[in-house]
Amino acid sequence: DAGVIQSPRHEVTEMGQEVTLRCKPISGHDYLFWYRQTMMRGLELLIYFNNNVPIDDSGMPEDRFSAKMPNASFSTLKIQPSEPRDSAVYFCASSLGQGYNQPQHFGDGTRLSIL
Amino acid sequence: QKEVEQNSGPLSVPEGAIASLNCTYSDRGSQSFFWYRQYSGKSPELIMFIYSNGDKEDGRFTAQLNKASQYVSLLIRDSQPSDSATYLCASTDSWGKLQFGAGTQVVVTP
């Protein structure tokens, strides 16, 4: 079975540009999570969706960040305008249900560098 | 701020020995605990999870949970060089959201 698929794997862009990260969850999974990982702050939850509906976006750092899930098989995380401090690895994860015995499965991540 | 604490390491372990990783959590409402392995430059990979007090074994891995002490651990038996990675401990809150620790780096030396 295909795992969580993220694109692009690497993104290098200049400050001020719009960045769009994409994620395809595991088929049948109804929860989707966006994380950011940096050396300083570790792995942080940004936002998560249940059945395509955003449930908790309290981890989104600023209004420059937005996320959508137009259907069960696709989600985007957008940064506009981007800043150098947004440089990090962004992971998407999905799970079947959300409970004490429902592990999250991670994609390979997008390594983002803002110059 | 509810937190998950781990020693950052590195934890140096001779090949064939047992690696013992520890994790404490502050949220008494946490229901379950997950251990992920992350190789450098790769994504977190689930090893196992535990939600009942006691031990849970899966191959060379054993997770131990003590809710009274708010303590969870991971034992890796017969450590191999391929076990060299960062191990992330995570707890779930009542909503099922994961709170990750900073991770423990394990180095298995031949």
Largest sheet of chain B: 6 strands, mixed
Q: What general outline of chain B do the C-alpha atoms trace?
A: globular
The most extensive interface between chains reads: A-B, 20 and 21 residues
Helical content of chain A, roughly? under 10%
The number of strands of chain B is 11
Strand content of chain A is: over 45%
Radius of gyration of chain A: 13 Å
- Average pLDDT number of chain B: 93
Radius of gyration of chain B: 13 Å
User: Structural class given helices, strands, pairing of chain A?
Assistant: mainly beta
In sequence order, what are the helices and strands of chain B, one letter per element? EEEEEEEEEEE
N-to-C order of helices and strands of chain A: EEEEEEEEEEE
Spatial shape of chain A: globular
Query: What's the number of helices of chain A?
Result: 0
Q: What is the strand tally of chain A?
A: 11
* Oligomer state of the chains in this structure: heterodimer
Largest sheet of chain A: 7 strands, mixed
Ends of chain A: how far apart? 37 Å
Characterise the protein shown here.
The complex is a heterodimer of chains A (115) and B (110). Chain A is mainly β. Chain A is built from no helices and eleven strands. In chain A, the strands form two sheets. In chain A, strands 2, 4, 5, 6, 9, 10 and 11 form a seven-stranded mixed beta sheet that branches. In chain A, strands 1-3-8-7 form a four-stranded antiparallel beta sheet, with no helix packed on it. Chain B is mainly β. In chain B, the strands form two sheets. In chain B, strands 2, 4, 5, 9, 10 and 11 form a six-stranded mixed beta sheet that branches. A five-stranded antiparallel beta sheet of chain B has the order 1-3-8-7-6, with no helix packed on it. In chain B, a hairpin with a 5-residue loop joins β9 and β10 (98-100). The relative contact order of chain B is 0.35. The model of chain B has no long low-confidence stretch (mean pLDDT 93). The A-B interface holds A 31, 33, 42-43, 45, 48, 56, 91, 98-109 and B 31-32, 34, 36, 42-46, 49, 51, 88, 92, 95-98, 100-103.
